[in-house]
Amino acid sequence: MNDMDGAAAAVLPPQPRSPIQGETIVAIATAIAPQQGSVGIVRLSGAEAVAIARALFHAPGRQRWESHRILYGHVRDPRTRQPIDEALLLLMLTPRSYTREDVVEFHCHGGLMAVQQVLQLCLSQGARLAEPGEFTLRAFLNGRLDLTQAEGVADLVAAQSTLAAKTALAGVQGKLTQPIRQLRSTCLDVLAEVEARIDFEDDLPPLDEQTVRSQLTAVLAEIDGMLATAESGELLRTGLKVAIVGRPNVGKSSLLNAWSRSDRAIVTDLPGTTRDVVESQLVVGGIPIQVLDTAGIREASDPVEQVGIARSRQVAQGADLVLLTIDAVAGWTEADQQLYESVQENSLILVINKVDLVPADGVKDLVFPGDWPVVHTAAAQQQGIDALEQAILNAIHSDQLTTANLEFTVNQRQGAALTAARNALHQVQQTIENQLPLDFWTIDLRIAIAALGSITGDEITESMLDEIFSRFCIGK
Q: Which residues contact 341 (CB under 8 A, 6 or more apart)?
């Protein structure tokens, strides 16, 4: 945290306590599944981490237990002396570790049994199972990371695209921290100047209102620029849900298969083949997209098909974007019109499929309701996919998702805090405009300073930390 004095220091609430000294936590730090993954990592952090490791790990020869060394050996049950796994041991001693505590990692064989047995041995030696995000929480509380960097860690773990990973890494590197702290520092300077005039009015020259106005205007412009990244950041983090909707046998499954370059959906000439929602995960223009191929929507007597159709309607209603797919051979039918009326409240792209089966003039003569983007595809021939992806990017205005514009992004929590700071600073401007006493200026300045401080963690409560870190995975 920055050092502050005078009136500036008064805005800081009591800081959260550090982790209990001597309490050592443990967790499996890698995904585990049967027959999946070659390496599994069990991570310890705390005052007893090295002692627990010495009790469990046998390193033959004269290997030195020094920080940032990797030891080879076996994990053994200290009661029976039976080996549990052949493993590597990585030592990272305080303060040169992720948590700034002693950290030990057992690098075991992957799968289920080895890491689970090592975890249980660590617990039997007095370690406590870590809570979600507790390693990163300790890194924050011990000054290793600020709050924007900690949230960047979570975003990096969850990233589903290269661009999402890049913006998350920017957060880890502190690229959001520096401008936020600079804005807060400017507000603190203004507050100190105002309070100095209140306390020592007779000893100081009058406050330069024009300078204060200029400073607040500059801060607000920076805040607006940061808030402009919020929508793009949310899109990168959560992705886009796209539903392919249409009558039976218009080529929805063929479109999914051509788009995902796989055979996720069964394709036949029989209408009603798809009975349930088929999902595929894609990345388009750096944006994660969940594509949902729905059952053909029509009047059906088959109970199983009826269930699939009901699910299709639900998926369409919950999608961010609907690809309403029609058959170029059949043209726009009454059934298509009914489908359109049920989904027209969504964002739509009209996909005319099977254009390879009709003359070009026949496609051009089709008339559709509304003013929606239209894409021509021949899914069975792998044609039109690039045009479809571009239409999707245009529909979500992804021209903003460029490297130049996305050096970093703000998440929902950070955006809410920035909005609170912006509103408070606007109120300060209004207070100045109304020529109210200087005491009134300080009220909203303090609100803005507290809001900006909550972003980096310079001002934070334990309840806020609990809420933020509860969303992390265990082991991180």
A: none
Has residue 62 got a pLDDT over 80? yes
H or E element: which one contains 375?
A: strand 374-376
The 10 Å Cβ neighbour count of residue 94 is 17
pLDDT for 399 equals: 46
Give the whole-angstrom CA distance, residue 74 versus residue 396.
Answer: 54
Q: Quote the tokens at residue 34.
A: 């049967």
Mean pLDDT of 262-282: 54
Q: Where are the alpha helices (DSSP H) in 346-469?
A: 360-364, 385-395, 412-433, 438-456, 462-469
Report yes or no: 352 and 366 within 8 Å, Cβ to Cβ: yes
Tokens 């499954």 label which residue?
A: 253
Start-end of H helices in 245-384: 252-260, 303-318, 334-343, 360-364
474 CB burial (10 A radius; 0-12, 13-18, 19+): middle
Give me the residues paired with residue 325 across strands: 246, 351
Give the up-direction half-sphere exposure of residue 54: CA atoms within 13 A in the CB hemisphere: 8
Mean pLDDT check: name the lowest of 17-21, 85-89, 438-442, 461-465. 17-21
Q: CA-to-CA distance for 225 and 402, rounded, in angstroms?
A: 15
Strands across the sheet containing 278-284: 278-284, 287-293, 240-246, 321-327, 348-353, 374-376
Give the Cα separation of 285 and 403 in Å (integer).
12
- Cα–Cα distance, 135 to 105 (Å, whole number): 13
pTM for this predicted structure: 0.75
Q: What is the DSSP letter of 436?
A: -
Taking only the tens place, the pLDDT of each residue in 324-349 is 988 988 888 888 888 888 888 888 89
Residues found in the chain? 476
> Does the CA dihedral 200-205-208-212 come out positive or negative?
negative
If we measure between CA atoms, which residue out of 311, 242, 327, 250 comes closest to residue 277? 311
Long-range own/partner contacts, residues 121-126 (CB < 8 A, 24 or more apart):
121/56, 121/75, 121/77, 121/78, 121/84, 122/26, 122/42, 122/44, 122/52, 122/56, 123/26, 125/48, 125/51, 125/52, 125/55, 125/56, 125/78, 126/24, 126/48, 126/52
